[in-house]
Automatic annotation (TrEMBL), chain A:
Belongs to the HdrA family. It comes from Desulfobotulus alkaliphilus. Keywords: 4Fe-4S, FAD, Flavoprotein, Iron, Iron-sulfur, Metal-binding, Oxidoreductase. InterPro entries: 4Fe4S_Fe-S-bd, 4Fe4S_Fe_S_CS, FAD/NAD-bd_sf, FAD/NAD-binding_dom, HdrA-like. This is Heterodisulfide reductase subunit A. GO terms for molecular function: 4 iron, 4 sulfur cluster binding; metal ion binding; oxidoreductase activity. It comes from the Bacteria. Residues 1-24, 42-76, 828-857, 862-891 form the 4Fe-4S ferredoxin-type domain. Pfam families: Fer4_7 (PF12838), Pyr_redox_2 (PF07992). Its cofactor is FAD.
TrEMBL record, chain B:
The keyword Oxidoreductase applies. This is Methyl-viologen-reducing hydrogenase delta subunit. The lineage of its organism: Bacteria, Pseudomonadati, Thermodesulfobacteriota, Desulfobacteria, Desulfobacterales. Keywords: Iron, Iron-sulfur, Metal-binding, Oxidoreductase. InterPro entries: MvhD/FlpD (IPR003813). One of its GO terms (molecular function) is oxidoreductase activity. Residues 7-65 form the F420-non-reducing hydrogenase iron-sulfur subunit D domain.
TrEMBL record, chain C:
The lineage of its organism: Bacteria, Pseudomonadati, Thermodesulfobacteriota, Desulfobacteria, Desulfobacterales. It comes from the Bacteria. This is Heterodisulfide reductase subunit A.
């Protein structure tokens, strides 16, 4: 594997074709293949079950053609024994296989595809190169596509997956929206669903936009598909909401398949002795969301319940935090560090450029005349040494290169080979080993950008290589050694907010050995959790919160500042200085900060809230349970109204927790008093994941669910002494009148909007007032601003288990910074020449990372300076500077101009 | 001989430069008329780069990011 | 119990979750073995075309 240079010659010569699983078997690949073009590691592998050499001892083409001698047919699986301190299981999920459903005829009809297949059809690297066409032989562009939701989810009859897969509603909407982008607005997209579950951050907006773009949402579960003879189109029969039987013909049907645990994962869990839930996911406690039933083994991602990408990323970091906690005493004992070679000073020396032209076997040399290119290189200014290597990246060439650099006293190195995106680091390492500053290196891309894409015109490809090399040498000649700044990271952490998220984050930080301060504006820890009655797993919230609070109080690494707020914040990653005000007036120096400022329930202004004591919010209902209020015994009927203040134009987001909360409370009432009439008035029930089991349980217990539309909200009135709720029944289509001895309003979750705090840490908030994370998918627990992290309902409404997980996740992300003890800056950052700066402030205003600022003191007070720690090297300020005062390491004006000026020979 | 345009392309390191790499990995064949200059971000792009590229004889300047 | 703590961890599965866990553990100063049954890391997300709500490329 180390020898493979990913040239792909083996695949070209391999005669055996097999199903391409990466492309959901919609396409073939060879028996020797790379999983996909961007695969990491980019190494070719042999499918042992179909390789002709391995199965019949014939062929052997790949070994013959391989220029790197990388094929080893004798490679055998090995069993390795690893001694480790903890284990994280993240085996993922298996997309549900709908072949077993004869009603959908998935296996029989080419135009019935799974959502996974549809992803590949939409993808530019997929079987149709991103052209949305039918899979039937006509390969026509579809005019009408239907999505069927809940295939392999929320279904106890035909498969055993009673849970909701959580992600399918959103991906179906996405696929429909992207399909329309591909084939135009005329494409008719219809999504057949039971409940639309867009409970994630910004998902409801996406749903509303899809409606505006004309995606049809049909609330109906289709059970039969009939083929239309000779057209490969499909007839669908369904019953509409108002009871009409409809027939429609679609060109293509996408089955929105669910997520399930792979049988091999179930076996792994059994072998490890880990308890699973009824849905075959790893079981966990609400306040220990990534811990399995076995100590030292943690779980993250879809194996801990079906979930989307950001939730999986939160899990991942949370699991790292929990797994790392056990290993704290052995930190840095198993890691390895490289030895440093002293750097020679070449500043001011005349450039002496060494050029290494790589043949990449025949990958480059097969098209580009590398000999001519090397000869040409010798004629270029400042070039002192030129050589041609078969493989510039091989270990022996690297060693030789370091020797040559030292021997010839080269002070700039240019490698003409593949792409810097994959190989720049490797060659820079070689420069470092030769005692040369790593920024004195330039890579010229004559493979990916040249030999591979101009095979038919070798002469022109050689000319292009010469041009690119000349430009590269001209640029490299102007390189200066660049310094990487080094900065100590203050080892103290600050957590803003003392709710469950904040307390969890603080505890996780302290457990890994860091002094932590919790800043809480109220007079106690606990936040909103203090109002909650129990979790859906039946755990007593008050008890768990008290445990957490006690653990914090006895922890001598954690200091709690109650009744305290933040007055000012100075500094940046690794070196913040925060002035507290109120209860504590400390000037706190800290390296990182976690925002866990939480959220609060909306105080409703409708449904007679505040006018009648029987009208409560969900949290007030919890308090009734906690205090065993006599109303629980006396009430004969209870009504819950969902989406109070959520999912409406002025607050276009779903509050995520309310459906489950109401269902749980409804069940609790039924348990308390089985003959009580309990109604839940809802728009879509969003009991995602295994919470679906609770929904089912509630229906079985006799809780009655009545759906209403946004434009026909229930009406609450007083009739004599009684409270009456009027709502139109969606099944019967006629008005209903429900008596309510208790009326619970599932009111929206509102963020504790804190503009000042956002300003202090330069972190953004969205229109709804929730903080905006670094990346909606991949960076949910941190901000784009370095050193500032995010947890809990300040990010988005979420239940306790997800809150605890994110508290841990924020801590884990923070620990990665604290553990390094130092932050290093890249050398390729912007730098101000203060003597030329005109103090116009453009750099300060354009920088997305708040790196430039005006100097307060000294000779150049009032001029701009750029904090290299915060600079990401994008060059926006360099381009924007009207005075030419900003220089850019590695991409300075003179260097880019040198490339432009040498573009023509 | 027919006229061939000379095109200078400024490609963002994080997206288009990688995309051009990927075109290579996928062996897409395209005319050899572009000369790539890698920039750290299209934010780095200065109007002066356009103008001087045109002055140096480029028939077109392509910025992608 | 005074058993010596081993400062390393194994992460089973090289999808996005496993990769992030491995990175966070490694960056926190622990040696990580990332175990993946396939020939490359990336998992199911690498097969997706785009991701909402931003419609970013999933790759």
């Amino acid at each position: 594997m180390d020898k493979c240079i990913a040239c792909g010659a083996c695949t070209e010569k391999c005669p055996k074709k097999i199903d391409d699983l990466y492309n959901a078997s919609l396409k073939k690949r060879k028996a020797i293949y790379v999983e996909y073009d961007q695969a990491v590691p980019l190494k070719y592998v042999i499918d042992p079950a179909s390789c002709i050499k391995l199965t019949k001892d014939k062929c052997g083409n790949c070994a013959k053609i391989c220029p790197a001698d990388a094929i080893n047919y004798d490679d055998k699986p090995e069993t390795l024994k690893l001694n480790v301190g903890s284990i994280v299981l993240s085996p993922g999920f298996k997309p549900f296989d709908p072949t077993i459903f004869d009603t959908y005829q998935y296996a029989k009809f080419p135009n019935v595809v799974t959502s996974m297949e549809f992803e590949r059809i939409l993808s530019a690297s997929g079987p149709t190169m991103g052209h949305l066409t039918r899979m039937s032989k006509d390969h026509e562009e579809p005019k009408k596509i239907a999505w069927f939701q809940c295939v392999g989810s929320r279904d106890m009859n035909r498969c055993d997956n009673g849970y909701c897969s959580s992600v399918c509603c959103m991906y179906a909407i996405k696929e429909a929206a992207i399909a329309k982008e591909h084939n135009g607005d005329d494409l008719d997209c219809a999504i057949f669903y039971m409940d639309m579950r867009t409970h994630g951050k910004d998902f409801e907006r996406y749903y509303e936009n899809a409606k505006k773009k004309g995606v049809r949402f049909v609330r109906s579960r289709v059970h039969t598909i009939n083929p239309i003879p000779e057209t490969d189109s499909l007839e669908v029969r369904y019953v509409t909401d108002d009871g009409r039987l409809e027939t429609e013909v679609f060109d293509m049907i996408v089955l929105s398949i669910g997520l399930e645990t792979d049988p091999s994962t179930v076996k792994l869990a059994n072998d490890l002795g880990i308890k699973l839930t009824r849905g075959n996911f790893a079981e966990y406690e609400t306040f220990k969301p990534v811990a399995t039933s076995r100590e030292g083994i943690f779980v993250a991602g879809a194996f801990a319940g079906p979930k989307d990408i950001p939730q999986a990323m939160i899990d991942a970091s949370a699991a790292a935090s929990a797994a790392g906690e056990l290993l704290t005493s052995a930190r840095n004992t198993r890691t390895k560090t490289a030895e440093a070679v002293p750097e020679s000073n070449v500043a001011g020396d005349r450039p002496k450029v060494g050029v290494f032209v790589c043949s990449c076997g025949s990958n480059i040399a097969g098209t580009v005349d590398v000999k001519a290119l090397a000869e040409y290189a010798e004629s270029l200014p400042y070039v002192e040494y030129v050589t041609n290597n078969l493989f510039a990246c091989s270990q022996d060439t690297q060693d030789k290169m370091a020797e040559i650099i030292k021997e010839k006293n080269l002070n700039r190195v240019v490698v003409a080979a593949c792409t810097p995106k994959t190989h720049e680091g490797l060659f820079q390492e070689t420069l470092i080993n030769a005692g040369l500053n790593k920024y004195l290196f330039e890579m010229v891309n004559i493979r990916n950008h040249d030999s591979w894409v101009h095979k038919e015109t070798p002469d022109l490809a050689t000319d292009k290589a010469k041009d690119l090399l000349r430009m590269g040498v001209a640029k490299a000649s102007l390189f200066e050694p660049l310094r990487e700044g080094e900065l100590n990271v203050n080892q103290t952490a600050m957590v803003v907010g003392g709710g469950v998220a904040g307390m969890t984050a603080a505890k996780a930080l302290s457990s890994q050995g860091y002094q932590t301060h919790i800043i809480e504006r109220s007079d106690c820890l606990g936040g909103q959790a203090l109002n909650l009655f129990k979790t859906i797993k039946g755990e007593d919230v008050a008890e768990k919160v008290a445990d957490l609070e006690n653990a914090i109080k006895v922890d001598d690494r954690i200091t709690v500042h109650l009744n305290t707020e933040i007055a000012t914040v100075d500094g940046f990653v690794g070196n913040f200085k925060t002035q507290l005000k109120g209860g504590s007036k400390l000037l706190l120096e800290h390296g990182i900060a976690v925002m866990a400022t939480g959220a609060s329930p909306l105080q409703p202004t409708e449904y007679m809230y505040g006018e009648d004591p029987r009208v409560l919010t969900s949290l007030e209902m919890d308090i009734k349970f906690k205090t065993k209020d006599p109303i629980l015994d006396s009430a004969e009927s209870a009504v819950f109204i969902q989406c109070v203040g959520s999912r409406q134009p002025d607050r276009p987001y779903c509050s995520r927790v309310c459906c489950t909360h109401s269902i749980d409370n409804a069940l609790e009432l039924k348990k308390h008093k089985p003959d009580m009439d309990v109604f839940i008035l809802y728009r879509d029930i969003r009991s995602y994941g295994e919470k679906e089991y609770l929904y089912r349980e509630a229906r079985d217990a006799g809780v009655i669910f009545i759906r209403y539309e946004l434009d026909a909200k229930p009406v609450v009135e007083k009739s004599g002494d009684s409270l009456v709720v009027r709502v139109k029944d969606h099944v019967l289509g006629r008005p209903l009148e429900l008596k309510a001895d208790i009326l619970t309003l599932a009111s929206a979750v509102l963020p504790n909007r804190n503009e000042a705090l956002a300003q202090f840490f330069k972190v953004p908030m969205n229109d709804d007032g929730f903080f905006v994370e670094r990346h909606a998918k991949l960076g949910p627990s941190e901000f784009a601003t370095d050193g500032v992290f995010l947890a809990g309902t300040a990010h988005y409404p979420k239940p306790l288990d997800e809150t605890v997980a994110q508290g841990r996740a924020a801590a884990a992300r923070a620990v990665t910074l604290l553990a390094k003890q130092k932050v290093y800056t890249s050398g390729q950052v912007a730098r101000v020449d203060a003597a030329v700066c005109s103090s116009c402030g453009i750099c300060v205003s354009v920088c997305p990372y708040s790196a430039p600022s005006f100097m307060d003191t000294g000779y150049y007070a009032g001029k701009a300076e750029i904090n290299p720690v915060l600079c990401k090297g994008c060059g926006l300020c360099v381009a924007a500077c009207r005075s030419g005062a900003i220089h850019h390491g590695g991409f300075d004006n003179s260097q880019i101009f040198a490339q432009i000026f040498t573009m023509s020979a | 001989m027919s006229w061939e345009p000379k095109i200078v392309s400024f490609l963002c390191n994080w997206c288009s430069y990688g995309a051009a790499d990927l075109a290579g990995v996928s062996r897409f064949q395209y005319p050899p008329n572009i000369r790539v200059i890698r920039i750290p971000c299209t934010g780095r792009m200065s109007p002066k780069f356009f103008l001087s590229a045109l002055r140096e004889g480029a028939d077109a300047v392509w910025v992608s990011g | 119990m005074s058993k010596e703590v081993i400062g390393s961890a194994v992460v089973v599965g090289g999808g996005i979750t496993g990769m992030q866990s491995a990175l966070d553990l490694a960056d926190a100063g622990y040696y990580v073995y990332l175990v993946e049954k396939g020939s490359s890391i990336g998992g199911v997300m690498s097969q997706l075309d785009k991701t909402f709500p931003t419609n970013d490329c999933a790759m």
